[in-house]
Amino acid sequence: MVLPRNAVIALVLGVLATLLIWWFPNREQAGDVPMMSERFNSVSFAPFRPGQSPLRDIFPTAAQVEEDVRLIAPRVRAIRTYASIEGNYEVAEIAGRHGLRVWKGAWLGRDLRQNDREIARLIETANRFPDVVERVVVGNEVLLRRDLPVEELARQIDRVKAAVRQPVTYADVWEFWAQYPELARHVDVVTIHILPYWEDEPLGVDRAMAHVRDVFRQIRAMFPDKPIAIGEIGWPSMGRWREAAVPSRVEQAVFLRDFARLAREEGFDYNLIEAFDQVWKYKNEGTVGAAWGLWTAEREPKFSLSGPVRENPHWWAYAGAAFLLSGAFFVATSLAFPAASRAALAALSVALGNALAFAWCGTFPYAFDEHQAAAGTVNVVGQALLAALLLRRAGMVLSGGPVEPSRNGAEATANLRGLFLGRFRWRDWRAFAFEDLLFVFLWTAAVLQLLLLFDSRYRDFPFPTFAVPLVAVIARALLRDQPRGGGGWAEWLVGITLVLAALGSAWREGVHNTQALGWTACAIGLALPLLFRILSPRPRRA
Asked: How far apart (Å, rounded) are the C-alpha atoms in residues 225 and 220?
């Protein structure tokens, strides 16, 4: 197959574009941000691995906990735990064997009997390992969750304080200490959480250290007679943006390095959140909740504590997949449609190859359980099928031959309803076309956009879920293959829902959240062809 010059140019430009779009966001960064060489003061320690969860009472083994403590011991002085009853192991005993100190916690919730059991075990452990447990933490963010009244919380703190020799504290977001200052009378140490990402007015890494310093000084001025400890501070490595707060590996590295320097300058007593990514947390906090660790859930360090950092160290593998997919698409389509423009097919093949690689990259690393993995598989397979159908249609258009007639949204919806209800016969697959599958994605986009509008706090913006559909919309516009006229209720419903919900979501997120604004543009882009079809006149037949 001899390629014309314009096709060769298109392929070369596609190769260069692929390298650029994968390398640039994953280039080495933050190499000029120094890191202190000493160990971290303390880190939150939850030894749960993928498939394990306190929500399902699936705990690690004692051997796995020992392995985790051994891994982090060279980098930390102490660890903080959150519950006194979990698993067939005692973290304080294991930590002591490796020379670590422990901030031992008891989990308090709405179950008063379970609270009593937690407190009893906390007291027992503190007294059994007095040289390891250096302080006890009675409850974590109980007031934030509104699980207990402050009086009951104070009673439990006093109960522990009377039974142990270690300093006793309670840990919560710093605003709740300002809201309930009377609690300070019951503790030896005021322990505050400062998480700039989760603030009501989120802050980016560039402003985070000034905020941390100001909050610490404010709380110290409120309680001049009490030691102040930072019980949780950190930054997530992935997840949705919140205004200028951007979760990423690079931002996490910069935050930790900046904070280590600030802590040394100010003499902070602190605990980082957290040692390992905890994938079970996505159930309550979305992707971002599972991404606060210094190590991944597979116990790999996310980055070196000094030197440059790459956002995605495996970017080259995804770029390679994009090359292979692009090449396969181009060869297959060129052979099937020899009369079609090779340059146009090359450009479309490169775009679809990169879109599918991006869909994979943005889906499976974020699939935290079997349900998410199954949903991600269905989505990526659906996008691959849509890419194949789009290439087939583009080949027909570029060849100047007959093209399948476009179905409207109602017809596509009826076809899909028949498929899901089992009334779709084998010979009907010949009628199942590009329009049907594209409309599945548009319906899905409308539903997800409503969720982003009304329940957005822990939801990611679904760029990877609609990578190929976005390419399809752009490609049809460039090919002038957009249907005109014949739309109906389905186009109105999906199109208007997407546009209005996207605009409402952008308004809620604010102008500083460029990720939200980018998704808003994508959602409106998906909707525009539907509205164009409704508003444009049906072409006259010759």
From this structure: 8
